[in-house]
Write a structure and sequence with these properties.
Blueprint: E1 7-10, H1 12-21, H2 23-35, H3 43-71, E2 72-75, H4 81-110, H5 118-153
Antiparallel strand pairs: 1-2
Helix pairs in contact: 1-3, 1-5, 2-3, 3-4, 4-5
The structure holds fe (ii) ion.
Fe (ii) ion binds at residues 67, 90, 94, 138, 142.
Length: 158
């Protein structure tokens, strides 16, 4: 009986293109971070924060969906096992990152139904900065993988 082990590979050119095209995601992250630095909050700013989180959640879902549809693929034969392990680990990180952002968006939404609570907003700000750091690290590691996959395809790898 033949056993086929599927591994995760990347299509470096598509994955790079998706990253290059995602200006809106970068802008939304920048605006959300700036908004969360506010020293004091009024109801209209809270509405704007909830709106930003909603748009950011949609953009992140689209970003990860595009990456998973066109940037990653299942491969029956692994030509570069050291790259495949990292590809699998990075792809599986998408779910956790998206879930973390959804929780932040829900917490911000919850503030709309009561008095503006500065303590909760400070916590949301701290958790957002933590989320953004993990996301940027994820993006950097995917970019490194893209460069190594290009290098490998050009015959520089093993
Ligand atoms: Fe990714």
């Amino acid at each position: 009986m033949a056993l086929v082990t599927h591994t995760v590979s990347i299509n470096a050119a598509f994955l790079q293109e998706i990253k290059d095209d995602h200006h809106e995601l970068r802008q939304l992250m920048h605006h959300t971070a700036a908004m969360l630095k506010r020293p004091d909050w009024m109801r209209p700013e809270l509405d704007r924060l909830v709106e930003l989180f909603g748009k950011l959640r949609d953009q992140l879902a689209m970003h990860f969906s595009l990456e998973e549809a066109f940037g990653y693929f299942e491969d029956a034969v692994s030509v570069a096992p050291h790259l495949c392990k990292r590809a699998e680990s990075l792809r599986s990180q998408h779910f956790q990152l998206y879930s973390d952002l959804c929780r932040l968006a829900e917490r911000a939404e919850g503030l709309l139904y009561g008095p503006v609570d500065d303590t909760v907003l400070i916590e949301i700000g701290d958790d957002y900065r933590q989320f953004a750091a993990v996301f940027h690290d994820h993006e950097s590691r995917e970019s490194e993988l893209i460069q190594e996959a290009f290098h490998h395809d050009l015959g520089g790898g093993d």
